[in-house]
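#lab-general

N.A. 3:47 PM
ok so I finally got the sequence cleaned up, no stray characters, all 129 residues accounted for. can someone with queue access submit it? mine expired

B.Y. 3:52 PM
send it over

N.A. 3:53 PM
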Amino acid sequence: MEIVTHNATSLAWMGDAIMTLVIREHLLSLGYSKANVLQKKSAKINSAKGQSYILEQLEKENFFNEEEKEILRRGRNASIHSKAKNADGKTYLRATALESLIGYLYLYAHEQRLHQLIGRIVELGDTLK
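B.Y. 4:20 PM
back already:
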C-alpha cells in the first residue's frame, strides 16, 4: 500500500472537485452536451445521497481492492464538522468516503483506476431515483 500522507478530509475536498469535473467530462464523452441535462445528471450523482447509494452498490459488487477499502474506511471515519443540507450523518460520511477515494486516486496518479471508477459511477447514476 502506498503511504498516504494526506488526511481523509483533505482527500475528500479534493475528491469532491475532481468527481464533479471528471463525471462531467465522462458524461460529455457519452454525448450529453446540453448544459441543463449535463448539470442535472451530474448533480444527482454528486449529491451526498447519490454518492452514498453508489458506494453501497460498488461495495456489494466487491469493486474495491484492499488499498481502496482502507481509503474508504479512513473517509468514513473522517472528522467532519458540517454536514450535507439534505442528508443524515451516515449518508454524508459514506459520500465523504467515496470522495476521499477519488481524491486519493487522483492525487496518487491512478488515472486508469480513477476513470474505471468514474465510468461505473456514471453507470450506477442512471439507476438513481
